[in-house]
Amino acid sequence: STALRVEGLTKRFAGVTANDDVDFDLRRGEIHCLFGENGAGKSTLSSCIFGFYRPDKGEILLRDQPVQIASPMDAIRHGIGMVHQHFVLVPEFTVLENIIVGTQRSGWRLNAAEARQKLRGICDGYGIDLDLDAYVWELPVGRQQWVEILKALYLDAQILILDEPTAVLTPGESKVLFDIVRKMCARGMSIILITHKLVEVMQSDRVTVLRKGRVVATLDTPATTPDELARLMVGRDVSFTVT
Ligand code: ADP
Ligand code: MG
Ligand code: MG
């Protein structure tokens, strides 16, 4: 079934149409990649879905109902979470403190003991290895990203947007991330994975390719090839010549 649908979404900035009549649908329990070159419009589309930007045209539907997502807080209330390329963390606070402070404005009212219990349950359930009492400044960046992901899970996100999540990860950390994201999908969460890396796209269920703000294709990933995706991304044949 469909978790989220975008119909005819257009978003312009001065001098540039960042998203041009974009159609996109996200199925329940899938990893759906947004793939495209730098500037293709991936972050703009996800920012519209997360309520950072108001589209100039088009609609966003959740469970087939049109919704107005006027702010990130609205998005959170609709069960959407987002992990940005740049983290919003306080290094001098612990993991637990960061999550409590970082989610307060969303209206979650758990005390520290309740928050700790809920987060323990989430970490144990997914096999996320993170010390809630560690100071964020002590953590490698790869682990800091888990604090951001935990914020979204703590707020009961059913749709999770990950913007270039492996940019800060080692290959080993990327594998752990994919394993845990797969567990989220198995529990009915839906993932929008923004990336420009082909190796990551190949691990997804479906991929929507954006080029210059437009959707050029939505494909079942197992039915496509890296060559085809590369060609769609740049709009012409690409030859990987081994010399
Ligand atoms: P991607 O995430 O695929 O790299 P973006 O969505 O960031 O692409 O950008 C799409 C286009 O919109 C680019 O041409 C970019 O320069 C432009 N753009 C993105 N955000 C803004 C903004 N806040 N103001 C003006 N132009 C923007
Ligand atoms: Mg960009
Ligand atoms: Mg981007």
Main β-sheet description: 6 strands, mixed
Could you give the order of strands across the largest sheet?
6-7-8-3-9-10
Q: Which regions are unreliable across 5 or more consecutive residues at pLDDT < 50?
A: none
Q: What's the SSE pattern?
A: EEEHEEHEHHHEHEHEEH
The helix/strand class is alpha/beta
Helical run tally: 8
Distance between the termini: 46 Å
Architecture (CATH level 2) name of the largest domain: 3-Layer(aba) Sandwich
- Overall form: globular
What brief labels describe this structure?
ATPase component of uncharacterized ABC-type transporter, alpha/beta, 10 strands, 4-stranded antiparallel sheet, binds adenosine-5'-diphosphate, 2 domains, binds magnesium ion
Q: What this model shows, in words?
A:
This protein is α/β, with parallel strands linked by helices and 243 residues long. It folds into 2 domains: 1-79 and 158-243, Rossmann fold (3-Layer(aba) Sandwich), CATH 3.40.50.300; 93-156. The chain has 8 helices and 10 strands. The strands form 2 sheets. The protein has a 6-stranded mixed sheet with strand order 6-7-8-3-9-10, with helices on both faces. Strand 9 (206-211) and strand 10 (214-220) form a beta hairpin. Helix 3 (95-103) crosses helix 5 (141-154). The longest helix has 16 residues, at 171-186. The chain is globular, with a radius of gyration of 18 Å. The N and C termini lie far apart (46 Å). The model has no long low-confidence stretch (mean pLDDT 92). The structure holds adenosine-5'-diphosphate and magnesium ion (2 copies). Adenosine-5'-diphosphate binds at residues 13, 16, 18, 36, 38-44.
